[in-house]
Design goal:
Nitrilase/N-carbamoyl-D-aminoacid amidohydrolase; 6-stranded mixed β-sheet; 32% helix
């Protein structure tokens, strides 16, 4: 079905869950008043990104008052949002929730935790162990968190599980320069476009902005159609909110014109991966 999504390119405050929740509630109210069906926030929108030893202080269980408040707000608009999750066994995850109709529709724990260059996630966080597509009012979705998308198998698994829309929540810092564009922005734009095109799927990418510890996040949130075309893109390096009209017809047309998913042979892929795995074990 057709739906309207809002990509909320916000600037969270590091370690300030209460302040961030206030900002998020304002964005949810504005999007709902404008008639949007879905709002998507960046990775770790409730806490900020470079948390380090703050992780246990900002972590939330899914039954915490803050999450319960967001669940309640999802009665009026579907919500995708990132936060630090604390599990019952006191593990901490970089997680994303999809909330709809007053319930948790899906929880994704980031599988690929970058620990190189500026990044140090594996020191503070546990990694997730699955990629699952899930049903929403708008069709079958898949959810990724930032680095997950750089591992092509993640998006492929979600597409094979029936996802026609991928949501990616991101906190990508600006690194390098390509003309007037941060190099990381140019790289992400290529990745999102290529993923959408080869998997015949829609991609809703929500990235944050602002500074933390001298690092600037570049923004550039966008909606990419199944053709790989960027339909709308947010501003670089500043707060922005963009509204996206997602049409079912565009997905149908692309899957007729370029039926890559129809022709994909999952069983050959599984067979060859199994062969490679057995060879490495042996």
């Amino acid at each position: 079905m057709d739906f309207t999504a809002v990509l909320a390119q916000i600037k969270p405050k590091l370690g300030c869950v209460s302040d961030n929740l206030t900002l998020i509630e304002e964005q949810i109210t504005n999007a709902q008043d404008a008639g949007a069906d879905l709002i998507i926030f960046p990775e770790l929108a409730l806490s900020g990104y470079f948390l380090k030893d703050l992780v246990p202080e900002v972590a939330l269980r899914t039954d915490s008052p803050e999450i319960k408040r967001l669940i309640e707000l999802s009665r009026g608009i579907s919500i995708a949002i990132g936060f630090v999750e604390e599990s019952n066994d006191y593990h901490f995850y970089n997680s994303a929730l999809y909330l709809e109709d007053g319930a948790i529709g899906h929880l994704h724990r980031k599988v690929y935790l970058p620990t190189y260059g500026l990044f140090d996630e594996q020191r503070y966080l546990a990694h997730g162990e699955s990629f699952r597509a899930f049903e929403t009012k708008f069709g079958r979705f898949g959810m990724l968190i930032c680095e997950d998308m750089w591992h092509l198998s993640a998006s492929y698994i979600l597409a094979m599980d029936g996802a026609t829309t991928l949501i990616c929540l991101s906190s990508s810092p600006a690194r390098g320069i390509e003309g007037d564009t941060p190099g990381s922005a140019a790289a992400w734009q290529k990745l999102v476009s290529t993923t959408a095109m080869f998997l015949n799927c829609r991609v809703l990418y929500s990235n944050r902005v602002g500074f933390e510890d001298g690092v600037n996040f570049w923004g550039g949130s966008e909606y990419v159609a199944p053709s790989g075309e960027s339909i709308v893109r947010a501003a670089l390096l500043e707060e922005d909110v963009i509204t996206v009209q997602v049409a079912e017809g565009a997905l149908r047309r692309e899957r007729i014109i370029s039926p890559l998913m129809r022709d994909e042979n999952l069983f050959v892929t599984m067979q060859e991966l199994q062969r490679i795995a057995e060879k490495r074990r042996g």
